[in-house]
Automatic annotation (TrEMBL):
Residue stretches of each CXXCXGXG motif repeat: 151-158, 169-176, 191-198, 205-212
Protein task: Participates actively in the response to hyperosmotic and heat shock by preventing the aggregation of stress-denatured proteins and by disaggregating proteins, also in an autonomous, DnaK-independent fashion. Unfolded proteins bind initially to DnaJ; upon interaction with the DnaJ-bound protein, DnaK hydrolyzes its bound ATP, resulting in the formation of a stable complex. GrpE releases ADP from DnaK; ATP binding to DnaK triggers the release of the substrate protein, thus completing the reaction cycle.
Protein known as: Chaperone protein DnaJ
Organism: Acetobacter estunensis
One GO CC term on file: cytoplasm
Cofactor: record remark: Binds 2 Zn(2+) ions per monomer.
Residues annotated as transmembrane: none
HAMAP family given in the database record: DnaJ
A single GO BP: protein refolding
Main localization (coarse): cytoplasm
Length: 382
């Protein structure tokens, strides 16, 4: 028995090849050695069968993993003529269990007769960054993607002669699938001759090389609604890769990344901002002006004796609510700063204040509560 070639060598790719690289290599070689392009050439026909067998294994993640680990031995059991014991000739002998499975699963096993398998185009995933202000108000962003569009030269048929050069696959009769028997079970798989497309192209188009689509760059404008949150995914139906003539296009998925703001923090529809206050402002009370996420300003009255960490709520000054005219609230958090780098006079005034304060100045609730708990703690130790 002749030794089988390594499947990766058959497809002329490395063992680390991606699924896309495998697919491109397969299509290139299958087109080159297809029997229709090499009539009467037995060597080309044998090579074509090797290419289909190799791709059939390597395109399947589970089969590929088994092959990488055990080589051709992974498919020596189970009977049949191909990897995993499948019979590429397909079908049961007439009568018996074959007829039973035909009646039970006939509709599930693919179409018979003419027509071609229709496969939708691939989806495209992109990420778009927006600022917090853009997420608040909504914005339109241009998005540039690498995609595939219908080939104009052949109108998506993949054939130099157009529809006239496209033939129904002789192996699957246009179904794009073949059936095989393994033990008592019927297994359905993509047709190895047409790779599930249900058709074969005799003379490929020079522009798309038989693909029916060509790679290009497109720029679209994506409308990002007000109130969008970080991580949201927007779906643009039919804006993905073309599926070829008669097949629906894939979708474009735009993942939104909202940039962090140095000023505001967002929690859903609410906005938080930290505002530093001098010690004297917090003690005596004051009025401050704070920025609002919509670009305006708002005044906040700070009462005398305000403690660090207190929040002041501004209703309706928060973030936009998605698909609504409502807005959340804004919370202003006060951060009381301790003065640093005091002048001699400032230090004298603070020392005078501390001396004057003594027991005559009412302590803050937190101050009084803390020392009350300390006193109780030590009394409990006695």
């Amino acid at each position: 028995m002749a030794t089988k070639l390594d499947y990766y060598a058959v497809l002329e790719v490395s063992r680390e090849a991606s699924s896309d690289e495998l697919k491109k290599a397969y299509r290139k070689l299958a087109m080159k050695y297809h029997p229709d392009r090499n009539p009467g050439d037995g060597a080309a026909e044998a090579r074509f069968k090797e290419i289909n067998e190799a791709y059939d294994v390597l395109k399947d993640e589970q089969k590929r993993a088994a092959y990488d680990r055990f080589g051709h031995d992974a498919f020596t059991n189970g009977g049949g003529g191909g990897p995993g014991g499948f019979d590429f000739g397909g079908g049961f002998a007439g009568g018996g269990l074959g007829d039973i499975f035909e009646q039970m699963f006939g509709d599930m096993m693919g179409r018979r007769g003419g027509g071609s398998a229709v496969r939708a185009g691939s989806d495209i995933q992109v990420q778009v960054e927006v600022t917090l202000a853009e997420a608040f108000s909504g914005v339109k962003k241009p998005v540039t993607v690498r995609t595939r569009i219908l080939c104009e030269s052949c109108d998506g048929t993949g054939s130099k002669e157009g529809e006239a050069g496209v033939q129904v696959c002789p192996s699957c009769h246009g179904a794009g699938k073949v059936r095989a028997q393994q033990g008592f079970f019927v297994v359905e798989r993509p047709c190895p001759t047409c790779h599930g497309e249900g058709r074969v192209v005799k003379d490929p188009c020079a522009s798309c090389h038989g693909e029916g689509t060509i790679e290009t760059t497109r720029t679209l404008e994506v409308a990002i609604p007000a109130g969008i949150e970080d991580g949201t995914r927007i779906r643009l139906s039919g804006e993905g890769e073309s599926g070829g003539k008669g097949a629906p296009a894939g979708d474009l998925y735009v993942h939104i990344a909202v940039q962090r703001s140095e000023l505001f923090q967002r929690d859903g529809s609410n906005i938080y901002v930290r505002v530093p206050l001098r010690m004297t402002q917090a003690a005596l009370g004051t009025e401050i002006e704070v920025p609002v996420v919509d670009g305006s300003r708002a005044k906040v009255k700070i009462p005398a004796g305000t403690q660090g960490g207190e929040h002041f709520r501004l209703r309706g000054k928060g973030f936009s609510v998605l698909r609504s005219s409502a807005r959340g609230d804004m919370y202003v958090q006060v951060v009381v700063e301790t003065p640093q780098n005091l002048t001699k006079r400032q230090r004298e005034l603070l020392e005078e204040f501390e001396t004057e304060a003594g027991e005559h100045v009412k302590s803050s609730p937190e101050h009084a509560g803390f020392f009350s708990r300390v006193k109780s703690f030590f009394e409990g130790q006695d």
